[in-house]
Amino acid sequence: MHKKRVFSGVQPTGNLHLGNYLGAIKNFVDLQNKFECIYCIVDLHAITNKQNPKELKSNILETVASFIASGLNPEKNIIFNQASVSAHSELAWVFNCVARIGWMNRMTQFKEKAGANKENASVGLMVYPNLMAADILIYKATHVPVGEDQKQHLELTRDIAKKFNNDFKCGEYFPIVEPLIPKEISRVMSLRDGKKKMSKSEDSDQSRINLKDDKDLIDQKIKKAKTDNDSIPSEINGLKNRNEATNLISIYASINNVKIDKVLKEFGGKNFSTFKSKLSESIIEKICPIGKQIKKLMDDEKYLHKVLEKGSKKADILAKHNLKEIYDIIGLAKFS
Ligand code: AQP
Quick one: which of 138, 142, 144, 143 has its CA closest to 164? Predict the structure, then answer.
């Protein structure tokens, strides 16, 4: 039996948005009172795409600030950046040798992110899921809160753990992790296209609500958010094939911690303009205080560095201990 332990990570690739918040960070905050939690700024994942070094440094700090502003307590949880703990990269190499090329070829996120010019994508982007498996398994984490877009990568993590345990006949050395995916909204979609996920790298800023957006901007983005010509249905069936409507209703449910049925009961038969003003209010109430706190924390870089330093030391101790055991299982040893 493995001790229950939560691990998750967020890439420091720019403005965090409502998708990151509702899909992942909100769950991180709820879990901190129930489990031992380790939250990582996965900066090594960020460099699978080209980054500006100065911006990357600032984005790493802003991600820490966003965690704390969203309610994560750095005294209670381990908050650190991936590059500070070298065991992540070392275990990722081991997993490069455990995972099969066929498994990598099936990863849909690689296909989406590499786009048409697959041959020109970095090798890192292709083996990213092995590093993600290493991030989780180096701590023998049992539970991973993520948005639905990461489900396939977590299945791969489970396959890697099973293959390693089996290849090296080491029982259940690595736990078979459980994803924790939010129920009311597992994937927040773009405000401009209900078939695409809300994403930092989408060109149009109108497609997402950033955690640092102010009241007026949030209101304007929600007013302009794409919908259809029908009114809001009273039953879930009425949302069938209505991607944009489903997205806005689900955002409202998630941000207010209520079930979708309840939202439909309240707004069924009404038009979208009435609903949108209530949706804006709810988002503004939740997100604006977080945005203000992020900006305030960014003025105190010393404090943010201290949080990372403290968290990295704690994570490094756990990771080094496990890496020694893993190397021993494989037949490797460190003589330096
Ligand atoms: N639209 C989303 N809906 C629900 N969850 C989401 N997550 C991201 N977008 C959505 C969840 O946020 C966590 C951190 O994600 P990430 O920043 O590490 O990477 P990502 O999934 O690649 O996010 P983006 O915004 O799409 O970044 P870019 O554009 O840089 O690739 C994860 O748990 C993820 O599921």
Answer: 138
List, in order, residues 6 or more apart from 183 with CB less than 8 Å away: none
Q: Does any ligand 1 atom lie closer than 6 A to the CB of residue 250?
A: no
Answer yes or no: are the C-beta atoms of 220 and 191 closer than 8 Å. Answer: no
Instruction: For residue 326, report the distance from its CA to the centre of ligand 1, in Å.
Output: 30
Half-sphere exposure of 233 (CA within 13 A, CB side): 14
Q: Report pLDDT digits (tens) over 261-297.
A: 999 999 999 999 999 999 999 999 999 999 999 999 9
Cα–ligand 1 centroid distance for 179 (angstroms): 15
Q: For the chain, what's the residue count? A: 336
Assess whether 113 carries a catalytic annotation: yes
- Among candidate residues 200, 215, 226, 314, the one labeled active-site is 200
Is 57 marked active-site?
no
User: Which of 295, 305, 293 minimizes the C-alpha distance to 79?
Assistant: 305
Q: Nearest-CA neighbor of 197 among 186, 212, 210?
A: 186
Return the amino acid letter for 103.
Answer: W
**Hey, is 174 helix, strand or coil?**
coil
Report the nearest-CA residue for atom 24 of ligand 1.
199
